[in-house]
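Feature request, filed as a ticket because there's no other form

It would be nice if the structure record came with a short human-readable summary line next to the tokens. Right now we just get the raw output. Example of a typical job, pasted below so the devs can see what we mean:
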Amino acid sequence: MFAIALGFVGVCVLAVLAARVYAEVRRLSAEVALASRRITAASGELEREAAGLARAGRDARP
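Raw output as currently delivered:
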């Protein structure tokens, strides 16, 4: 009987740990998605600025 109870407690501990891992993976994936959106926005802004600088440089040459 003791072994069955110990096994049940072990399964409960594993279930709690699995739930914590799941929650952390969800949180991390949300942070990665946010960082990806920020990088995409920054690269678009960089591309626009580079195009503007290229036009300005072309116009400044004699």
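Something like this underneath would help us a lot:
The chain has one helix and no strands.
The mean pLDDT is 93.
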